[in-house]
Design goal:
Elements: E1 2-5, H1 8-19, E2 27-31, H2 38-48, E3 64-68, E4 72-77, H3 83-93, E5 98-102, E6 115-123, E7 129-135
Parallel strand pairs: 2-5, 2-6, 4-5
Antiparallel strand pairs: 1-7, 3-4, 6-7
Helix pairs in contact: 1-2
Length: 139
């Protein structure tokens, strides 16, 4: 599925709508270049689960942020983490909430039972965003 976004608010709303399909134990890999809107999408996912979107920010330097609401969201940035470190962190929290991985494409998803979605955000020709959501079975 490909969804167009023309503004950060659109991207946040796409996150809210996407979150309706989540059960609460999935791993979601989100990729896209810096500034493309990954955090806006994640803010929408968090809002759906009654988490204040103001709490959601990129965990670039902290590696992981944890947000508490109707479910727990573990938001990780794997850019500066080795594959082995990432796998260790994820294995400790898998099944305890939704895990959202920025730069998670460096992982081999077959190691984790709950990797359900790959979301890629790219700029289109007009510098709007194209948000591609693929289930694991689509890859």
């Amino acid at each position: 599925m490909i969804i167009k976004s023309e503004a950060p608010e659109d991207t946040r709303k796409i996150g809210i709508n996407f979150a309706e399909s989540l059960k609460g134990d999935e791993i979601i890999i989100v990729s896209g270049e810096l500034g493309v809107g990954k955090t806006h999408l994640i803010k929408g996912i968090a809002e759906y689960f009654d988490i204040d979107s103001k709490e959601v920010n990129s965990p670039t330097f902290t590696i992981m942020n944890i947000y508490y609401g109707k479910i727990t969201i573990y938001h990780l940035d794997l850019y500066r983490v080795s594959e082995e470190e990432a796998e260790e962190i994820i294995s400790e929290i898998e099944g305890k909430g939704v895990i959202i991985l920025e730069w998670g494409e460096k992982l081999n998803p077959v190691y984790f039972d709950n990797v359900k979605y790959f979301i890629e955000i790219e700029y289109d020709k007009e510098l709007n965003r194209e948000i591609k959501i693929r289930g694991l079975t689509d890859v």
